[in-house]
Amino acid sequence: MSVDVQVAESRPSGWFFTRISLFWVGLSFMWGAVNIQVLPSVVPDMVGTRLQGTAIGAIVFVGLAIAIVVQPLAGAVSDRAQFRVGRRRPFMLAGVLLVLPFLVVIGLTPYYWLLFLSVVGVQVGGNIAHGPYQGVIPDQVPSHARGRASGFFGIANLIGTILGAAVAGQFIAEGQLFLALLTIAIVLVAMSAMTWVFVREAPPPPPESFGPIWNEVRRRIRELRGKQAFVWLMGSRLLFFMGLQSMDNFLQLFFRQGLGDDSPEGKTTIVLGTVLVLAILTSIPAGWASDRFGRLRLVAAGSCLGLGSAVLLVFAQDFVQVVAFATLLGVGLGLFTAADWAAAIDLVPDARAAGLYMGLTNVATAGGDALATLSAGIALDVVNQLAPGYGFRAVFALMGLYFLLSVVVLGKVRAHVHAAPHSRVLAPGA
User: Fold this and answer.
1) What is the rounded distance in angstroms from the CA atom of residue 424 to the CA atom of residue 292?
2) N or C end of the chain: smaller count of CB under 10 Å?
3) Which of 100, 114, 124, 86 lies closest to 26 in space, CA to CA?
4) How do residues 84-123 score in pLDDT, each as one tens digit?
5) 3-416: what CATH class?
6) What is the value of pTM for the model shown?
């Protein structure tokens, strides 16, 4: 291991946390733009308003279902990689290069089926990069600093999402869809280049005798039967992201059709910006607190705030109320983002396979997005046909149900944690 990496691990600085978080800005910029602004803008014109929710949900669901498979496999491959430049960065670069042509197609196609296939392609490339990237914290950050590292990762994710949604929304409002997609590509390449320069990986460890990839994945999944705390945490994470994405991916349509707003892209950006700025402001102190007082309490508080926000949004009648009610979600997202990621790393069953296990966490993150978008999209279409105008209220009610179930499932995590004395999953002395 190089001296530089040893120093970074023993005394993590703010600059260290910042540079290992840069790649997350690029990934979240892409998905914030595509899921929040691009798909709700182009899909209704392709399929009509009667099936818009289901059509958006189908794209997101299938794409993320593929991502659920690709990400842990890519992480597992990177765990055993022996490249001299590091075992994570080559896969991150390859994934980004694969994404770029599909972004071009999304910006040009007038056909739903081609849009569908292109988003799937972006998911494959993005998750070839994402899976190995998730091994960076376990590789380089000591356990006593993982809460702070998770806070920085959360901030990078939130900054990328808000910038992606804001920039794409502005271009789309001006009728410049292709420029929006071109900007996504530029940001993604720039963050990848900066990560390659600023993230120093230690020489790879001696190769492990893991066996064939598929056998390794199956063996690790079987091992999870004895690691119930990790499994239940992923269940709680799945439900949290189902609640979050139920709002995010249909907010633009709510402003345009539910409230009759003539500038839905801008209103969507303002609401999500409020949520994400509050989450960013909350993440750093929340990461510090999770290192000292335990992860699960902050995760539970974040889910409860999300539940409160969803209940209020059911009754929202105008833009100002939506912004006000969404502030609770912003604080809750900051608490959750900082603490949940660190808890997952603490509960990884085998640090030698960190890339694979952290890739499996995407079953919760991406799976939550996929299931929420599909279920909320179907609920939107069905309720609107039965009771016109109430479909979006049903989406917010579903959002609240997912947050409530997330809190309930979190209780199972605590019941199954058998933490070592130094663990920060529970509060000290818990």
Assistant:
1) 7
2) N
3) 100
4) 777 888 899 999 999 999 999 998 888 999 999 999 999 8
5) mainly alpha
6) 0.71
